Amino acid sequence: MGLEEQARRAYRVYRRYRQHGPPKIRLRGTSSRAPTIYYLARDYNEPSGGIRTLYRHVDVLNEAGVAAAVLHERRGFRCSWFPNQTRVTDVRSSPLGPDDLLVVPETDARLLPRLPASVRHVVFNQSGHLTWNVDAELVTRHYLGSPGLLGVMVVSEHSQDLLEYAFRRPVHRVRLSVDTALFNPPDRPNGRVLSYMPRRGRADAENVLHLLRARGALGGWTVDAVDGVPQEEVARRLRASTIFLSSSYQEGFGLPAVEAMASGNYVVGFHGFGGREFFDPDFSRPTPTGDLLDMGRALEECLIREAEQPGWCWSRGVEAARHVRAEYSADRESASILAFFKEIGHRP
């Protein structure tokens, strides 16, 4: 299965997941004592970096004294696949007042044209490539002319460039962070373990591995497909890995690859466009997205280097981890989130 078919399959899953449409937002006419920022989130209790990021933003805001909550559809719903004590509520229990602010993910863009003009809102677009997947013309008109749209947040330089080019309006990039208490490099080189995450780009990653097996290049290496496990187990297995194979496609950011770097891996493969900003050739090996031959050659070259100079991957992985710790820290993430809401004029 090539990239085109992967994209079609992903889109079919996306459509099935959202076929009943976004929840109906309830309104009230009176202001609340504490204007609140509500992050709309689907009731989806499976690993999802996007939803985890919504929870993270709410935590950052509340810790800074800015009232915020994750807004689910069902009463009592909370994501349980990662530990959290995030403030959550539901659409029935928390109607929006005139001073509240609604944050809408790009995956619920069909809600945007239905919002009354009086609803103050922000689009949190974590993947610019999904912007026009549903009701494209209505969504475009909303981005261009809705009086209630106070701002647009994205999580990568690529998405910022894409949406500013499309809509000719300022788009604000907020940073993501990596939990370096979980994702950190080993003190010494690991054994010969190569990892990948089949949830994204499974076919491309596995075809490259078949290619190298055919050449006899994977002898002595263990291949670890990290999938369907809790975050703590992901971190443990990435820390035990030496090389991470990235097969992401049209990513808003590409958190798996950056978490692998934080864990001391030498990352080889596709940056998925959103990850271009951290795929530095000094400590990783980016290859053109979709080019399986180049990915296979790059990976084999890496395996040869490691065989000739044991620890070659580890030394570059440590450099990658150092870069991630500096660029994607919790402090920089928090500062960028708070700066965005201050800039759009939200007064807690």
UniProtKB/TrEMBL annotation:
Which residues are in the Glycosyl transferase family domain?
Answer: 226-281
A Pfam short name:
Glycos_transf_1
Q: Does the keyword Magnesium apply?
A: no
* SUPFAM superfamilies tied to this protein: UDP-Glycosyltransferase/glycogen phosphorylase
* Range of residues in the leader sequence: none
UniProt-listed Gene3D superfamilies:
Glycogen Phosphorylase B
User: Any idea which GO molecular function terms this record carries?
Assistant: glycosyltransferase activity
- Which InterPro entries does the protein's record reference? Glyco_trans_1 (IPR001296)
Q: Does the keyword Transmembrane helix apply?
A: no
What keyword terms does UniProt attach to this protein?
Transferase
Per its record, how is this protein called by name?
Answer: Glycosyl transferase family 1 domain-containing protein
Native organism is: Micromonospora arborensis
